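For reproducibility, we list the full input for the copper (II) ion complex.
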Amino acid sequence: MLKFSDLRLTDDFVKKELPFFNRPNPNPSYRRRNEAKMTKKQRQRFTSSLKTLIDDGWFNEFVNIHGNMDYHMHTCNMMTGRCSLMGTYRFLAWHRVYLLKLEEKLREVDKRNFVPYWRWTKRRRFPKWLLETAPKGMKMLNGMSYDVRRDIKDPSGLPTRADMKSRLTLSNYREFTLALEGMEPRGAHNTVHTWVGGTMNTMYSPADPIFWLHHAECDRLWYIWQIKNPDQHPPLTGKDAIMNPWSNRYKDISDLKSLPYTYGQLRV
Ligand SMILES: [Cu+2]
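The corresponding predicted structure, in tokenized form, follows.
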């Protein structure tokens, strides 16, 4: 069982001042691991379980939830070009729920599964072991078919660790989430989407398995930030606070101790 002391919090202040009400789950069901540190078996399990979900059509439908941009889960809607703060405020929580739903399904296939995270600041290249997992013959909401494509750029285009460290010092929710998601000047999340390119640059980006590893890293960065900033929340009320099409509420999904997972590493 994971002990709190295993979390390797490097910052002494965090250890001492960690507020009781937003600390990691001391008894998580599982741990999300760094993709670079996974064993061959764990990687194979992940890709073959994903393939099971792709082959039975579940994955395609699940991707299309993201293809429907009516859920206000990004600052800007790629379809209409309209941007709103509501999307800004829902971005992190909505994607946390989305990841959890895939993870639940993967764990139904094999209980040992988890969504790995890709530390793009440190491992500055596309994870080789995932290169060949690129679904083909996917269907968009309008019935058009597509294959997952990538246009991977030079490593220098990825956000740096120094950059992320400075973004994590922002202590206001809105400023932080914008710096992570990306408005100007190019937030980290958007930068990585563009860096992978191809399908990752569209609203069908979840069709590329790297989407999940990228978003697990974004979620991990939020998680680290939440520990340091337990009082910072987006001003979501009423139905805006419900991460539709699911029924999860912001207040539950942002409570670290109620999450079933923790992260293998809590450093930026
Ligand atoms: Cu998204």
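The CA atoms of residues 103 and 231 lie 28 Å apart. The domain at 43-263 is CATH 1.10.1280.10 (di-copper center containing domain from catechol oxidase). Both points were considered when choosing residues for closer inspection.
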